[in-house]
Amino acid sequence: MIVKRATAGAMLVLGALATGCATTGGSQLENTVYRNNEMLRNMQRDLNSSVENLNSTVANLETRLDQNEGQMRTLRGLSEENQHQLETLRQRLEEYTTAMYRHLDLTPGGRPSDAWRPLEDQDDVDVGDPVIDQGMEDTAPMALRPDAELQAPADPMSVYEQAQRSFMDNNYQEALAGYEQVLSRHPDWEHAHNAQFWKAESHMNMEEYPEAIREYQRLREDYPDSSKAPYSLYNQAIAHVRLGQTDDARRLLEQITEQYGMHETAERAAETLRRL
Question: pLDDT at residue 29 above 70?
Fold first, then answer.
């Protein structure tokens, strides 16, 4: 019964549609179909245009990727070439260093990375370098002097240079012996204050802090005008710190800031004071 009623209703709807179409004519349906068809054609054109743009973009990206790969290959080649050049330079530097030490009769060495490193100035004579003293009237190279073979073995510069070599090789006992020989035989020599400073440094590196304190103090007493004086004050303060004598260390550090306010050790002293 229900199926029959639904069928009858559908027939009535179709009849009404047919009646409406007949009333308005077939033009409205044709216009709707035409508009839909035109819309589909426009969408097809837009889609085709989008696909073409996409294909062009992909082609450009592929070209750029090819270019980047070429650049990467070039950069990789340059990197390998630079690495080769660096390795060559490293080998040449090692050969030059070895030749230099052999020429100067030195052995490569130095302080361990965790060893005591003092503040020091730059007025020392470089170990192994030719001694050029602008205060001497005779400035001829030693090798050209006819009396070079007659030079006394106790020449203070020779002894001092040998002591410096021993210090660089961490052989502080031999260095101490050389510094002491210079100071005992030539206390008024122009580099005697340097020998006194490095004598104190030798004790410092051997962790003989009381001896280091004594030698730093002696430098300032015997050579008050030495350029090493402010460094001696600072390093002596550090020796007191190592011994737990913070009051003595603080006194010396304050003396640096007051007496050598413009010196590089003053800034270090102020920083150390803040940490005490």
Answer: yes
